[in-house]
C-alpha cells in the first residue's frame, strides 16, 4: 500500500497541471472592419476584341469600323463594307461572291454592361436603298445582299469556345430596306452579357442580281446597323 500511494498522487497532480491552460484556438477578442464599393453605369467605350475570343483585345484593322459608342449597351464594331470588285455582267440571274482571302473574318461586336436584371438585345440590319450608280442614278432593282449565319462568342467563354455562347442567336439574312435581326441575346438571365461577337468568312457574303437588270456602272448603297434593347422571348 505504501509503495502505490506516490504514483496516485503524481497522476492527480498532472491532471491539475493540464487543466490550468485554456483550450487551443480560444478567442480573446472579436472586432470588425468594413468593405464598401459603389457601382454605377459603365458608360465607357469598349475597344475591339478578338472575334473568336472576345476576352482578348484586337488591334485595329482596315476591314472594320470601331463605332466608339458608349455603354452600358453598345454596338462596338461593324464591318467597314462588303466589296465585290469589278465583275462581268450577266443578263441571266447571277450571284456574286464578296472579296476576301482565306480566313478573312468579318464580325460584329456588342457589349452589354447593364444591370444584371436587365436582359436581352437585338442587332438589326437594313440598307438605304437598292444599289445605285451615282453618275447615272440607275438602280439595280431587286439586287439583294446576303449575310451568312455567323458563329457567336462571348467574353465569359473559356478560351473563346462556343460552349457558353449557345444562348446567343445568329441568322443568315437578306439585306433590304426593312430591318431584320442578324444577332441577338434573348430575354434570359445572363444571356449576352459582357462582350459578344458574331463572325463569318468575308467571302461567304453574296450579292444576287435578278435577270434583265444590269447595265454598266459603279453601284453602291449604305448599310445601317441598329442595336435595340430587348431580345427574343424564347
UniProtKB/TrEMBL annotation:
InterPro entries: WxL_dom (IPR027994). This is WxL domain-containing protein. Residues 1-29 form the signal peptide. Keywords: Signal. Residues 29-229 form the WxL domain. The keyword Signal applies. Residues 39-72 are annotated as: Disordered. Residues 58-68 have a biased composition (Basic and acidic residues).
Amino acid at each position: 500500500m505504501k509503495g502505490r500511494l506516490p504514483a496516485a498522487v503524481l497522476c492527480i497532480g498532472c491532471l491539475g497541471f493540464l487543466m490550468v491552460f485554456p483550450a487551443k484556438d480560444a478567442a480573446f477578442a472579436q472586432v470588425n472592419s468594413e468593405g464598401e464599393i459603389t457601382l454605377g453605369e459603365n458608360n465607357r467605350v469598349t475597344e475591339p476584341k478578338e472575334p473568336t475570343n472576345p476576352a482578348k483585345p484586337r488591334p485595329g484593322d482596315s476591314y472594320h469600323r470601331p463605332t466608339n459608342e458608349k455603354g452600358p449597351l453598345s454596338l462596338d464594331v461593324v464591318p467597314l463594307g462588303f466589296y465585290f470588285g469589278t465583275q462581268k455582267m450577266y443578263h441571266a440571274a447571277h450571284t456574286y461572291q464578296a472579296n476576301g482571302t482565306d480566313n478573312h473574318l468579318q464580325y460584329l461586336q456588342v457589349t452589354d454592361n447593364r444591370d444584371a436584371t436587365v436582359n436581352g438585345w437585338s442587332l438589326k440590319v437594313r440598307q438605304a436603298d437598292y444599289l445605285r450608280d451615282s453618275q447615272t442614278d440607275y438602280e439595280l432593282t431587286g439586287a439583294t445582299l446576303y449575310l451568312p449565319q455567323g458563329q457567336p462568342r462571348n467574353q465569359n467563354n473559356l478560351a473563346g469556345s462556343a460552349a457558353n455562347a449557345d444562348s446567343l442567336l445568329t441568322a443568315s439574312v437578306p439585306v433590304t430596306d426593312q430591318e431584320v435581326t442578324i444577332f441577338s441575346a434573348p430575354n434570359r438571365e445572363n444571356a449576352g452579357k459582357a462582350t459578344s461577337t458574331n463572325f463569318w468568312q468575308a467571302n461567304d457574303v453574296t450579292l444576287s442580281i435578278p435577270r434583265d437588270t444590269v447595265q454598266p456602272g459603279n453601284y453602291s448603297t449604305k448599310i445601317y446597323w441598329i442595336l435595340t434593347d430587348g431580345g427574343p422571348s424564347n
